[in-house]
Design a protein that fits this description.
Order of helices and strands of chain B: EEHEEEEEHHHHHHH
Shape of chain A: globular
Structural class of chain A: alpha+beta
Distance between the termini of chain B: 61 Å
Helix content of chain A: 25-40%
Oligomer: heterodimer
Structural class of chain B: alpha+beta
Number of helices of chain B: 8
Largest sheet of chain B: 5 strands, mixed
Largest interface: A-B, 82 and 81 residues
Largest sheet of chain A: 5 strands, parallel
Radius of gyration of chain A: 24 Å
Helix content of chain B: 25-40%
Amino acid sequence: MLDSKIPKEGALGKKWEDYKGHCKLVNPANKRNMEIIIVGTGLAGASAAASLGELGYKVKAFCFQDSPRRAHSIAAQGGINAAKNYQNDGDSVFRLFYDTVKGGDYRAREANVHRLAEVSGNIIDQCVAQGVPFAREYGGLLSNRSFGGTQVQRTFYAAGQTGQQLLLGAYSALERQIALGNVTMYSRHEMLEIVTIDGKARGIIARDLITGKLERHFGHAVLLCSGGYGNVFYLSTNAMGSNVTAAWKATRKGAFFGNPCFTQIHPTCIPVSGDHQSKLTLMSESLRNDGRIWVPKKQNDNRKPSDIPEEERDYYLERRYPAFGNLVPRDVASRAAKERCDAGYGVGSSKQAVYLDFAFNMDRYGRIEASKRQISNATPEQIRQLGKEVVAEKYGNLFDMYAKITGENPYEVPMRIYPAVHYTMGGLWVDYELMTSITGLYALGEANFSDHGANRLGASALMQGLADGYFVIPYTMGNYLADDIRTKEIPTDHPAFVEAEKNVQADIDKLMNIKGTKSVDHFHKALGKIMWDKCGMARNEKGLKEAITEIQQLRAEFWKDVRVPGTANEFNPELEKAGRVADFLELGELMCVDALNRRESCGGHFREESQTDEGEAKRDDDNFSYVAAWEYKGPSQFELHKEPLVFEECKPTQRSYK
Amino acid sequence: MEHYNMNLTLKVWRQKNTDAQGKFETYPVSGISSEMSFLEMFDVLNERLINEGKEPIAFDHDCREGICGACSMHINGRAHGPWAGTTTCQLHMRAFKDGDTVTVEPWRAGAFPVVKDLTVDRGAFDRIIEAGGYISVNTGNAQDANCLPINKDDADAAFAAAACIGCGACVAACKNSSAMLFLSAKVSQLSLLPQGQPERKSRALNMVAQMDKELFGSCTNTGACEAECPKEISLTNIARLNREFISAGFTYEK
């Protein structure tokens, strides 16, 4: 039933080349008659829309924001990986592939990951050609930095704003195609249903968020590039509008959802400051290049960090993982922080934080600068000042952001950080061609499950979004549409469109007519608390079972008592939120069901029942070396399909970063 | 940092839709923590309005970390409020003290019609980019990235210009509602880089023509845009755009 469509022929490293050599093509004249719908305009969506538009397809792109430039990819900070080996430090396509599979704790599909590593270099070339201003060295060539889970420097970056620069590159390519008439852009539109005809995805129902009017759009194929679902936790580093609605509507329509419980808790975020908190802010992983993480060696130590002498500090990552130190993967770093705080070593007023300290490296940089400038007898103050300037150039925007949010100066005192929900490795199940289990429906970028296994390495999300959009879908799309060239545009008065619109309208009417007593946010916060407490950094059978019952109760209460003000035929942000939270209330349950089913720990999924003597995640390859693809069968009813994972090149072992 | 709570009086622009007449409404808010962000204070107010059976205030926001450019409030007469180099979402309530009256309006510019309350339509910015804010390179055409060394100073200057988030504060701050800072940031980024050279002249001419078509005003070098820009985009970009535009006007043949 679940056919991953990995090319059968050839060694792993030859599969993609072989696929490209043999996939079907659509001739330019026929491309002009083929329509493609793209939902979401982040890195995956914008790059796909631009590339498919360039090829000559008729593309319609949709985003809920007021402009495609605001998609949440814009907030990615640290960088993008590519196996260029510009540093001559031993990098290669194989090593990037291997690091990604290992970092994902052997729960990703090898063939997809290998393809990702193969095209990674092309992404950097493409972005530079578009005018993306990556950081450069004085010789004029590109600069790299380190990220977690690797021992080479392969991360390209633009200060702490890499996602912004990459997205604006893809956005400008998209705008160019809009100007040329190859792409029609629908901003402030939200997709609310997939339309299927004879088992194939043939269009969508979208709501114009300004007028509230429902629209029917036909497409020979539909691409979902709608991002991840971290906001199911309410508090996350995602943007306020990030949601699962497009992916969830597809799930309800028959697309399988892959590994929903695989969520990434990022170790370095600004801690929660109070009940008013609406979102959490990431401090880029790249800071772990130059920051050292520590807590006091004494429990409940209330001294100021500057008053705690060196020998009374516990650099616990360096202590536990000498080989990777502060650059262990995110899941490992997050659990280690939680372990220290739970054991009473946390800092700050909440005691739910650890220090990320730059003093050591600021002085190191200062000494290098002093040496470069041939200042032989620099004072410690001078050295610190020179070091500060170097750090400001690398991470200035992040330090400013920290200062604005906390009111503290991170150049002077160590940052306080704590793990927070950041990314979702799970997503719509897709085959090698990125097609979901609905024919003609594709999922790209964070919206699919395919490349990161149970834990994503830093700087790999941007790589995957752009790989899917620029270099994968242009080939696999042709292979599908080549057989569809005789299909004429289907008029949107077809009964399938009429029926789909009727259902969407009924859902909206239902939400508007509850006229209950509690706001949408009330339910969203309640859901987030259940998810964080029972399906967050650590999970166990008892908690997950409780969570499932609690979510079911909360969902019932939502449909009885939610209050959506205003009307449906106007700009109504509360109505948009209500629809999204309704979908989160269903997805949250499935995440717990999946987490309960997977009685092993792997990557970001930590089942307390399955750990090594040292408290590390313990996989159970005999029983769980598969992708869990869930089929929606009705409210609270999900059927599990398994895609076995076969490893030809990477032999699964207990991950070690010691 | 000392935390404190405050009571404030908010005067907020309410407007049902683009065609409706708008007006200020006054809302007292109490128990606001100095640790909250400005938008979290609006969340608290909206939650109260919903519980009272009233319509919450519509405002654009998304990433809440100062990078998506969605948030757009004119606070006490200043785009994005009192802190320099800060978007509305990163403005924190430490900026205010107990008893303050805070006036909040949408961006005011003919080219940015109000959609509802504090939300405006900034589609004109997208159309300016469509007119030439890109390098015409199809996917797959690129050479190896390091085949094109770029002087670090130029790369850094291009990056500084590319940091624009397209929020529109420059337009809102300008007495002429000019979009010159926004436009010049993109023209600067691309004209500073070797990749941008082939289309350098047509880009400057076409983008300026589109800006005029969108009914943004002219630039009179007042500098309010630079003063209020949350990303501190420099006024020198406008000088560069003027050079690009004038020299293109004399030398571009088509």
